[in-house]
Amino acid sequence: MAECTECENLNCLIKKHSLDEKIKDFLKNKHTIKCKKSQQFIMEGTPAHGLFFTYKGKVKVAKTGADEREQIVRFAKDGDIIGHRGGFGSSKYYSISAQALEDSSLCYFSKEDLKNILLNIPSLTFDFMLFYADELSESETRVRKLAQMTVKERVIDSLLYIDKKFGSTDGLFNVSLSRKDYAEYSGTTEEQVIRILSTLKKQNLINAKGRKLGIKNFEALKEEISKHTLNMYT
């Protein structure tokens, strides 16, 4: 795994400040973790000791709902932070679980190291503050959308989000998700997702090849949920 100064993930907050002289000693304490596809590296409710950064790979982050059903709350790709609501701050336990969607490499910093880094590098502390503000805003927007959207609109919103998050190649998303994953992110059942995807495919709005999906007609899908999104997917 590359050193932070050589990392290509320019969106990573640690990478952004890796040339600061004050951070160099702390970077020596970074741990690297390799996860196989489907391997869970954070278990909900377990003691939170630190924060993860995705070096290479794709991850799903989930939380158990009141009905004991798993709800995917977000996905992570190269450079993204995982476990920030428990791995850093006052919480003693992780409020989420995290599982690799493909073979992935992660960077890990302990709570103590992160605390010392932020106390010594104000500019990084400020960037973390902005990150948390953006995360809160996105979470509030998603909760509001889920409450107002129909099931079909939620599935369409999920498709547009996946394309924005991971991108597409040859008309298919650059990530392989199960229909169950789409259901858990959309807040519905696997049966409803299968039925809606079948309808969208017949309408020539999406592509499907095995587990992989892709969008054929972006404008039509955006129009379906335009009253909720306010140009989020432009």
**How many beta-strand runs?**
12
Number of helices: 9
Beta strand %: 15-25%
The named CATH superfamily of the largest domain:
Jelly Rolls
Main beta sheet, described?
4 strands, antiparallel
How would the global form be characterised?
elongated
* N-end to C-end Cα span: 34 Å
Helix-strand category? alpha+beta
Q: What is the CATH first-level class name of the largest domain?
A: Mainly Beta
* CATH fold assignment of the largest domain: Jelly Rolls
Q: Report helical residue fraction.
A: 25-40%
Q: Which CATH-level-2 architecture of the largest domain? A: Sandwich
Number of individual domains = 2
The radius of gyration is 19 Å
Residue windows where pLDDT falls under 50 for at least 5 positions: none
Q: Average pLDDT, to the nearest integer?
A: 91
**H/E topology pattern:** HHEEEEEEEEHHHEEHHEEHH
Give the spatial strand order of the biggest sheet: 1-8-3-6
